[in-house]
Specification:
The structure holds two protein chains of two kinds. Chain A folds into three domains: about 40 residues; about 40 residues; about 150 residues, Beta Barrel (Thrombin, subunit H). Chain A is built from four helices and twelve strands. The longest helix of chain A has about 40 residues. Chain B has one domain. By secondary structure, chain B is mostly helical. Helices cover about 65% and strands about 0% of the residues of chain B. The C terminus of chain B is likely disordered. Chain B contains six helices and no strands. Classes of the chains: A alpha+beta, B mainly alpha.
C-alpha cells in the first residue's frame, strides 16, 4: 500500500516536473536536434528524405493549382510590357537569324574537321524533364524540389538546366523527388571557365542573386560581360554549359549573373551525362587493361 | 446524429490551428512565382503560430509546435536551415505570448501588429544567428530582412482573414439573440 502511494506520488511529481518544464525541455530538444544535425549529417539526410517522401505527393498535388496562378500572374505582367518585349524580340530575332547561318556553316565545317582528325567525343548527354514542385521557402537556402527521382533516372550530382543555362545541381534524391541546390545557395561550388580566356575558376554561391567567382588566377583578364561556362572538371557536368555573365569586377570580387531564370521556371531539365563524377559517392571500379583479373575468391584471400 | 455532428465540429475546430499551420508550411514550399519583390516566401507559418497563440493557445500545444517546426526545417532542406530553428522560433513566440497574456487582453489590432513586428523580428534574428553560428561564416542578412518586411505588411491581411473564422466558436453555445449566428 505504502509502495503504491509512493509510486503514485512519484508519478504526480514527475508529471508536475514535466508540465512545469515542458517548454524548457522542448527548447533544449530543439537546440539538441540542431547540434545533432550539425554532427551527424547522414542521420539528418535520412530524416529529410523520409519527411520529403511523405510531403512529395502533397507538394505535387499543390503544384498544379499553383502553376495556374503563376501563369495568371505572368500573363498580367506580360501584358504590361507587351510592346517593349515585342520590339526587343524582333531585334533579337534579326540578330539570331544571322547567327543561325553562321552556326550552320560552322556545324558542317566542324563535322568535316572532326572526321578528318578522328576526334573522340565525350559521352552524349541526355535530358530528363522535370516539373518544379517546391521551393525552399527559407531566407538562407536556395533550392528547388523536382517531381522526378531515382525511378526517373535522376542521381545526385547531375546538372540542372533551363533553356538559358545552368541553374544548379541535384543534391538529394528520393524515389519520386529530387532536390536541386541552386547556384546562389551558400554551399554551392562549381568549377567553371571564363569562356573568352579559358581561365579556370570556382563559382561560389553566397545567398545573393549574384554568385561570386573565386580562385581565379588573375582578375586582370576578366571583363564585365564575359560568359562563364562549366569546365567539366570533377567529371559530373558536361563541358560548356552556359552558366552566367560577369556582371561586375571590383573590390568585392567578380560577380556573375546567372543566365537561367529561377524565379519564373516551371519545368527544368536534368542533364544525364552518363558518368557520375567525383561529386557523388564512390566511383565505378576502373577498367583494367592487361591480363584477365584473377577469380574473385583468390583476390579476396590475397587481399587478406 | 446531431450530437455526433456537434462532436465532429468540435474536433475540427480544435484541429484547425495545427492543420492550418501544416498547410501553410506546405504553401511556403510551393513554387509560387510572385513578382520579384516577393522572391522570398513570407513567414506564413510564423504568422499563423503568432495569431493562434494569441487567441487559441490551447489548440497549439508546445509539443505540436515543436513537431511542426522540425517538419518545416526538414522539408526546407540544405545547410541553411539547421533542423530545430523553426521549432525554436515557434516555441519562443508561444512562450512570449503566454508569459505576457495579462497585457494582451482586449488590445487593439495595432498593438497586436506591433507585437507581431517585435516577435517576428526576434525570431528572424534568432534564425539568422543560428545559421551563421552553425555554418561559422557571415551570411548576407538581406533576404531575411526582406522576408521580415514583406511578412510584416502581409500580417494585417492574414490576421483579418483568419480572424473572420474566429468569430464562430462552437465551444461557446450559439447565441440565439444574435440573428444569423450559426451553431
Amino acid at each position: 500500500m505504502a509502495l503504491r502511494n509512493a509510486v503514485a506520488q512519484a508519478a504526480v511529481s514527475v508529471r508536475y516536473v514535466v508540465q512545469r518544464f515542458s517548454l524548457a525541455l522542448l527548447v533544449a530538444a530543439a537546440i539538441g536536434v540542431m547540434l545533432i544535425g550539425k554532427a551527424d549529417t547522414v542521420l539528418l539526410e535520412r530524416a529529410r528524405a523520409a519527411a520529403l517522401d511523405l510531403a512529395a505527393p502533397l507538394l505535387e498535388a499543390l503544384s498544379r493549382p499553383v502553376a495556374t496562378i503563376n501563369r495568371l500572374i505572368a500573363d498580367v505582367e506580360d501584358l504590361a510590357n507587351l510592346r517593349a518585349e515585342n520590339a526587343r524580340l524582333r531585334e533579337e530575332n534579326a540578330r539570331l537569324v544571322t547567327w543561325q547561318s553562321v552556326a550552320r556553316r560552322m556545324e558542317v565545317e566542324n563535322a568535316e574537321l572532326r572526321g578528318l582528325l578522328n576526334f573522340k567525343e565525350g559521352p552524349q548527354a541526355t535530358f530528363i524533364t522535370a516539373r518544379v514542385v517546391g521551393d525552399s521557402g527559407s531566407a538562407f537556402v536556395r533550392s528547388m524540389l523536382l517531381n522526378v527521382g531515382r525511378s526517373g533516372g535522376v542521381t545526385s550530382g547531375q546538372a540542372v538546366v533551363t533553356g538559358e543555362g545552368l541553374i544548379g545541381r541535384i543534391t538529394e534524391v528520393g524515389e519520386s523527388w529530387a532536390r536541386v541546390l541552386l547556384l546562389s545557395d551558400l554551399s554551392f561550388r562549381l568549377p567553371v571557365l571564363v569562356e573568352r580566356s579559358r581561365e579556370p575558376a570556382i563559382l561560389t554561391g553566397d545567398n545573393s542573386q549574384l554568385p561570386r567567382l573565386a580562385m581565379t588566377q588573375s582578375l586582370a583578364g576578366i571583363q564585365v560581360g564575359d560568359r562563364i561556362v562549366t569546365s567539366g572538371h570533377g567529371g559530373s557536368f558536361p563541358v560548356g554549359i552556359p552558366v552566367g555573365v560577369v556582371s561586375s569586377v571590383g573590390e568585392g570580387g567578380v560577380r556573375v549573373k546567372p543566365l537561367g531564370d529561377v524565379l519564373r521556371v516551371e519545368f527544368v531539365r536534368v542533364v544525364d551525362y552518363g558518368i557520375t563524377g567525383l561529386v557523388t559517392g564512390p566511383a565505378p571500379p576502373p577498367e583494367v587493361y592487361g591480363p584477365p583479373a584473377p577469380p574473385p575468391r583468390a583476390a579476396a584471400t590475397k587481399a587478406r | 446524429m446531431g450530437d455526433f455532428l456537434q462532436q465532429l465540429d468540435r474536433w475540427l475546430y480544435a484541429a484547425l490551428p495545427g492543420t492550418l499551420v501544416a498547410f501553410l508550411i506546405l504553401l511556403t514550399l510551393a513554387p509560387v512565382r510572385l513578382p520579384e519583390v516577393l522572391a522570398v516566401a513570407p513567414l506564413l507559418p510564423l504568422m499563423a503560430v503568432y495569431h493562434f497563440c494569441l487567441f487559441r493557445a490551447e489548440a497549439l500545444p508546445a509539443w505540436l509546435l515543436f513537431g511542426l517546426g522540425i517538419l518545416f526545417d526538414l522539408l526546407q532542406g540544405g545547410p541553411g536551415t539547421p533542423v530545430g530553428v523553426s521549432a525554436l522560433q515557434f516555441l519562443l513566440v508561444r512562450q512570449a505570448i503566454l508569459g505576457n497574456q495579462k497585457y494582451l487582453v482586449e488590445v487593439s489590432f495595432t498593438f497586436i501588429w506591433f507585437g507581431y513586428a517585435v516577435l517576428s523580428a526576434v525570431a528572424v534574428a534568432l534564425s539568422w544567428c543560428a545559421v551563421s553560428l552553425l555554418m561559422w561564416r557571415f551570411i548576407d542578412p538581406q533576404p531575411a530582412v526582406f522576408q521580415y518586411v514583406v511578412s510584416l505588411f502581409l500580417y494585417p491581411i492574414f490576421g483579418w482573414l483568419i480572424g473572420r473564422g474566429r468569430g464562430r466558436d462552437p465551444l461557446n453555445a450559439p447565441d440565439p439573440r444574435v440573428p444569423g449566428s450559426r451553431p
